[in-house]
Design brief:
The chain is an all-alpha fold and 181 residues long. It contains eight helices and no strands. The chain is globular and about 45 Å long.
């Protein structure tokens, strides 16, 4: 809405957001359905996982959110087997080994929690979070990948700084978790 007489022009909130966070979602919208499902599962898993790792353990909410997080991780892993951007061996690549790791880790984490082996449960979950989400997430930002185009093609290089800040935050979280043991 443009106003006169000493007032300034205001952009709609959606345009203000796009100017501050100028990501380009079109590569993701044009991506195959498996990629869209994969991203739709991993993004909430990233946020939910951080929340779970930073809050009280063993509570009913921890168990409920943990089940949701595990389901998101299984969806993320299974959907990756239908993504064949990097075709090294019959449509698969070394990143698919990470998906196998996550599926095994989900089973180990659930088994350990049921057996009251909290140390093994914690190790499996932290490994999934930092390996399955953190390391794999970094690989998605390699030039030529869809998420690289989403994150970096729409705006200034400060988005790179935001990404680096996220990585630094993940490392701080890892250190905080390591001190708890």
């Amino acid at each position: 809405m443009a106003e006169t007489g000493g007032q300034f022009n205001r952009l709609p909130a959606s345009r203000q957001f796009r100017q501050v966070f100028p990501m380009n979602l079109q590569p993701l919208l044009d991506a195959p359905l498996a990629v869209q499902i994969h991203v739709a599962a991993v993004l909430p898993a990233t946020v939910l996982g951080a929340y779970i790792l930073m809050n009280a353990k063993g509570t009913p909410i921890h168990r409920l959110l943990g089940k949701v997080w595990m389901a998101l991780m299984v969806i993320t892993s299974l959907s990756s087997f239908f993504i064949h951007e990097i075709n090294l061996v019959y449509g698969f690549s070394p990143i698919h080994l990470l998906s196998v790791f996550v599926l095994v880790a989900v089973w180990r984490a659930i088994s350990a929690a049921r057996a009251k082996n909290i140390r093994a449960h914690k190790a499996a979950v932290i490994g999934m979070y930092f390996g399955g989400i953190g390391i794999a997430g970094l690989f998605t930002l390699i030039p030529g990948r869809i998420m690289n185009a989403v994150v970096f093609s729409g705006g200034p290089s400060w988005i790179l700084l935001l990404t680096l800040a996220g990585i630094a935050g993940a490392l701080l979280l890892q250190q905080r978790l390591a001190r708890r043991t």
